[in-house]
Every structure is written in structure tokens, then in C-alpha cells.
UniProtKB/TrEMBL annotation:
It comes from the Bacteria. This is Putative exported protein. The keyword Signal applies. Residues 1-23 form the signal peptide. Gene3D superfamilies: Bordetella uptake gene, domain 1, Periplasmic binding protein-like II. InterPro entries: BUG, Bug_dom1. Keywords: Signal.
Length: 133
């Protein structure tokens, strides 16, 4: 068997095993933890994301709101769950990344978590009333 045939067979075997792993993985519901309260922008976007994910993966994606200071309730709830891929969460990058720089936390953002995608990009502006001096 030449190298190209061997490589093709290896890629095919990996593809088959990945499909089997995905089929096994995607049989349970997914928990989508939101670090903000229900009804706000982050919650609405998370619920839209959950609907799309549920349709794409064929499993329920349940949104759970865990608001609180510096996103710690949401972060800790995810950190304390098994690392099996069935729990995802959203957070605000400034809070999530800055808090460990200002105080001791039980997590290291870029070591304990892996970003899956950046869903919203927003910039802030400072406003004042038009009739202000």
C-alpha cells in the first residue's frame, strides 16, 4: 500500500470515528449558562443561539440564567460541572478577563476555558444630553 492510499485510509478512519464520537456526544441536552439576568440583551441573544444550536445538533439546549457580580456565579457553575461539553456559557470579556487581574480567582480564563465563537461585537460610546453646557 503506498503512502497516499495509507493516508487516505487513515483520514477515512478518523472521519468515521469522529462521526461515531459526535453521535455519542450529542445525545444529551446542553445547558447554556447566561451570566446576566433574564430578559436583557445577553439573555435574548443566548435564547436565539440556543434555538439555532438545538436545531443544528438535534438536542435540547436549555438556557439557565446565573447573574451576579463579575459573572462569578455563572463562571463558577460552569467550572464546577464535568468537562464533557454539555455545558457552555457566555460572559462579558472585560469582566471575565479583568477580575483575575484584580483579585485571586479559582480560575485562569485562557487555561480553564476555551472560546467557541465571538457572537457579538460591540463598542461603547459616552453620551451627554444635547442641551448640557
Amino acid at each position: 500500500m503506498n503512502f497516499i492510499k495509507l493516508a487516505a485510509a487513515g483520514v477515512a478512519a478518523l472521519g468515521l470515528s469522529a462521526g461515531a464520537a459526535l453521535a455519542e456526544w450529542s445525545e444529551k441536552p446542553i445547558t447554556y449558562v447566561v451570566s446576566f439576568g433574564a430578559g436583557g440583551n445577553a439573555d435574548v441573544v443566548a435564547r436565539m443561539n440556543a434555538e439555532v444550536l438545538s436545531e443544528a445538533l438535534g438536542v435540547p439546549v436549555n438556557v439557565v440564567n446565573k447573574p451576579g457580580g463579575a459573572h462569578m456565579p455563572a463562571t463558577m457553575s460552569v467550572l464546577e460541572t464535568p468537562a464533557d461539553g454539555y455545558t457552555v456559557f457566555n460572559w462579558s470579556p472585560p469582566s471575565f478577563m479583568v477580575v483575575p487581574l484584580t483579585r485571586e480567582t479559582p480560575y485562569t480564563p485562557l487555561e480553564d476555558f476555551i472560546p467557541l465563537y465571538a457572537g457579538i461585537s460591540a463598542s461603547n460610546a459616552l453620551y451627554v444630553r444635547a442641551d448640557s453646557p
